[in-house]
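Researcher: Next sequence.
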Amino acid sequence: MKTAFISGGSRGIGAQIVRTLSQKGWRVAFTYFKSEDAALALARETGALAIRADARDEGQVNAAVEQVLGAFRHVDAYVHNAGTAWTGLLQDMKTEEWDNLFALHVRSAFLHTRALLPGMISNRHGSIVFISSMWGEVGASTEAAYSACKAAQIGLMKALAKEAGPSGIRVNCVAPGVIDTDMMRAYSREDKQALMEETPLGRLGTAADVAGAVSFLLSDEASFITGQTLSVNGGMVI
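Model: Next structure:
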């Protein structure tokens, strides 16, 4: 049975990835940090293994990977979903806020991937997907740091696809557009309507839209796809 490991899997897009892969017969493990109630409820719902870990901390990441390997013996797929947003003018951003954002989006992607690669290389098989963003492709005003983090993930993905490809490992990104999750709680109905009107398909994306793209990239149907960014944005960025 194939095993998938998702960082940041307790809520929103991450939780839907856990559900989708579990429904497709994967054994799934995921990490969470603060949302313990949601994580344990999701574990009960799906049968997935929930592990508390700070995705920015090297020791906790390594311990989480060891726990997954101890439970499942191997990891066939890793999805890096851990992250958060920051909105505001760059000149108003504190240095520690910048550092924290990069630690969660970029350092964490490095830590998890480095810990999982030896097993994948040994098995000559594996698939890695980073959840980036359309803003990593084109940039967003008042989201300069977030855009930079997501662009860094795309750059890491492209280089790692070349580096790990000879070992049978595929690496890709999914770049969501405006996805209607709890990260959009601060948006008014009017704000959401305006975003829908900006989107050629005329609606906001769902967590299921993103999870479906991830599921495809992890599947055998995508066995000749690596080094690519799959945009799930309803046409907002073309």
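Model: The chain is about 50% helix and 15% strand. The helical segments are 12-23, 36-46, 58-72, 95-123, 134-138, 144-164, 189-198, 207-218.
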